[in-house]
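[Solved] Which block belongs to which protein?

Original post:
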Amino acid sequence: MKGRAGGERGKTMRHLELYKGELAGAEGLDRAEVIPLHEQAQEPRPPRGTRRAGWLLVACGLTLLPWLYVLAGGLPATATVAHWPVVWVGLDALEALGLIATGLLAARGDRRHALAAAATATLLVVDAWFDVMTAAPGGDLATAVAMALGAELPLAALCGRLALRALSRHA
């Protein structure tokens, strides 16, 4: 009924009125009740704690916006990182675990694959971003862009599609 034009909705209601009139005169029925066919389904209101947590997260996100300006002007153009290999190995290990978990859960038909897929898609996009943004000009940058376009972003899109399909199917 949602997408119907006003004329069709009125036509449907007239049919219901006709039936109402017919039923009102029937034996043993004092009144007929017209039940609307197109009521808006309302989402239940989340609990107070959930609402408060949501607004707290919104406030934290808005607080970060001015901090971005401070960071953009205050960070050095280059930096030396003590645990650089650990950072990249850790990120890639999380991606591997995410891909394996998503694949196993999806293959078993477990609905929780949507959660693993969403997290894995996020990790893959972050990896592509950092690979490209931290690559040295020349061959390193070309390799980073090729990996992002050839592997990380397509896998992220696949994981995102799996997550969205699972969530829309069970909503």
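(Second protein starts here: sequence line, then its structure tokens.)
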Amino acid sequence: MLDQIPFLPYVISAFIGIGLAAATGFRVFLPMFAVSLASFMGWIPMSENFEWLSGIPTLIATGIAMIFEILAYYIPFVDHLLDTLSIPLATIAGSIMFASQFAEVGTFSTWALALIAGGGTAAAISSGFAGTRAASTATTGGFGNSVVATTETAGAGIMSVLALSAPVIAFIVAIILLIVVLVLGRKIWRKFRNFNTKSNATIIDVEAVETKNIE
């Protein structure tokens, strides 16, 4: 009965694309490696325009990039440097992952939808965790950043598996993640801003006391 629904394949493709885009919001190269591996093994079909994802060069390149990306987030200062690049890279990767799931849609329509839905989803999640890492650095001195990095890697892996095996669940989880990022992101940013305000106020008070003592 479901096979008789004309738009069902496009809906499923959209669910897979959103799930993969959400995964790239956590880690850029892990979802790309997962798609490359799955298409190389013949587990998922790939359109002609994205056959390069199924090739051995792409599989090796994304695998190496994935390992370096995961390890780099455990290195102090390097993780913040990557955060400055993660949002634009996640937007591009999320758009590619979304577009790769559509084989028969026109080029302009595919990329317009991919940029809005895929790129937007990836950028929102990536920016949310970048803000979480900044707040972690400010409040824990960087000791909590490894927890954030591990959570991101686990999230990318889980979302990639769900997108390829259970796209409906992946879509629901992606929507929940977006809501959580929007709600908690604002709270974290407010706490981070209040923390900086209090720190600046303390510095000003100390400077005022020192100036008064000198006079």
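Accepted answer:
You had them paired correctly. Confirming on the second one: The chain has seven helices and no strands.
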